[in-house]
Amino acid sequence: MARSVQAKVGIASLIMMGSVLLSRVIGLLREIVIAYVGGADGAVDAYLVAFIIPDILNHAAASGFLSITFIPIFAGYLARDREEAGWQVFSTILSVFGCLLAIGIVLAWFFAPQLIALVSPGLKEPAYRTLAVRMTRIILPAQLFFFAGGLLMAVQFAKERFFIPALAPLLYNLGIIAGGLLLGPRLGMEGFSWGVLAGAIIGNFAVQLWGARKVGLQFRISLQYTHPEVKKYLKVTLPLMLGLTMLFSTEFFLKFFGSYLPRGDIASLNYALRVMLILAALFGQAIGTAAFPFMARLVAENKFGEMNHLLNNTLKYLALVIPFAALLMVLRYEVVWVLFQRGQFDAAATRQTAVALGYLLIGVGAFAVQTVVVRGYYAMQDTLFPAIYSTIAVLFSLPIYYAGLQVMGLKGVALAISLSSILQVLLLYLVWNRRTGNTESRAVYILYLQTIGISVVVGLILHGFRHVLLKLFDVPTVWTSFAVAVLTGIVFLGLIILTAYLLRLEALIAGLQRLKRLVWKK
Fold it and tell me: Where are the beta strands (DSSP E) in 247-353?
């Protein structure tokens, strides 16, 4: 691969990693505010359930995949120096599918009570079900702004402009926080739902409209649904609309099966999931999002060997997420206490959330890896295979969810999320290797097995060290918890660096060096 492309991937990765880090930090602040206002109670459960129908519509419109499905189409026009025709396709897709989405939103608004009963059958208390319906109706219109904003961000990515799209999740989360703080005292959890709508309008649409104009936006209403590119877009997008992706199925099953758990357990699972996803996104989402345009270009140039090399090297860097997951697993109680235990979030909620976090961290590596592996398929404009195999893996995981719920309750649902994610990503990567003749994949498997073994040993050492610290700090407070986390983290870094160099694990050493450059970059 040309050095210039590698350099561009590096720059784009820095921008997106900064965005992901900030958005996750602000997203974590959002969860802290929610925990402070609502704790782990039925009203928070209702707020989370209110996202199910909007998320299904968002998934049906493939709004979260627009950068993946539309970039290759628009980039193809740019490569052929036919930008004006590309903007015409942009206008047609936005007009046609925007109208269909608007119709879906209206129907969902009217049938919200029946739909909520269908997707959260265990939510029986009338007050919380009524609250969930009301907040669903507030959040529903935001999906139209997510869809339009996704297309506006896609054209900016296609033109290798990353900064303004990187602002979208930041502004969205700030909108939710503002809604909760300003309206929460008067409306309770409903204030957060108004913040969702405001954040979507501002961060995902208005600011992205400005960014798209800066790269030459051209738009006029066009309902030419017979346009060849509309058919091509639908062909690529349809599997994503019908398939069950990892994150979508996780969010849905957490709330569906969680609705049968005691009041407040959906909230505890959600808080734990958000903490876990920070780690997964920091390593996986940033690199995957930044690398995708370059993957698409390599595919367009038929450089599949370089494409596999880029994919495998990226996965090797992502192996670092496993030892960090071990650290977080050891410190789960301290992390949850420091982050959430204040306001309405009490000690019982801390215990429940920490337990859920421990089981969710088993699958954090799979969540990070999936964001990169699946983009290999999308770069080839192949959405059918990953949709089919992800759906198969999700369906196979249903008995795991059911058994987990029946036998282990909250722990079982959290464990099922991890096992399902591991199953999905293994299946996707195995199929990818067979289809592309990826001869370097064996080194990736070996590195991950080595890293898991090292992480288990390091985790056991850290567990013992934490136990000693807890005896020294015999009065548990937020400050002693923070001290335990910091001291254990210092020991962890020393152990990982020492192990990587002693065992000469070149991929981990390179990953640590890159992480060091990111931390100390001026």
Answer: none
pLDDT tens by residue, 287-317? 666 667 677 777 777 777 788 888 888 888 8
Position 521: which residue type? Answer: K
Helix then strand then coil, % of the chain, to nearest 5: 85, 0, 15
Q: CA-CA distance, 225 to 91, in Å (whole number)?
A: 11
* C-alpha dist (Å) from residue 439 to 53, 265, 318, 374: 42, 45, 19, 18
Helices assigned H by DSSP within 111-162? 112-119, 126-139, 142-158
pLDDT tens digit string along 63-87? 666 666 777 777 777 777 777 877 8
Residue 369 contacts residue 284 (beta carbons within 8 Å): yes
Q: What is the mean pLDDT of residues 354-380?
A: 89
pLDDT at 1 over 50: no
Query: Structure tokens of 238?
Result: 């349809």
As a whole number, mean pLDDT of residues 16-30 equals 74
Are 338 and 485 contacting, i.e. CB atoms less than 8 angstroms apart?
yes
CA 396 to chain centroid, in Å, comes to 22
| Residue 450 backbone class (left: φ over 0; alpha: ψ -120 to 50; beta: rest) | alpha
Cα atoms in the 13 Å half-sphere on the side-chain side of 4: 0
Distances (CA, A) of 286 to 151, 280, 307: 19, 10, 18
Report which residue type is found at 490. I
Helix (H, G, I), strand (E, B) or coil at 440: coil
CA distances from 406 to 261, 262, 322, 399 (A): 10, 13, 29, 10
Name the pTM for this structure: 0.83
For residues 243 and 33, give the distance between their C-alpha atoms in angstroms, rounded to a whole number: 33
CA 357 from centroid of its chain's CA atoms: 16
d(CA 513, CA 510): 5
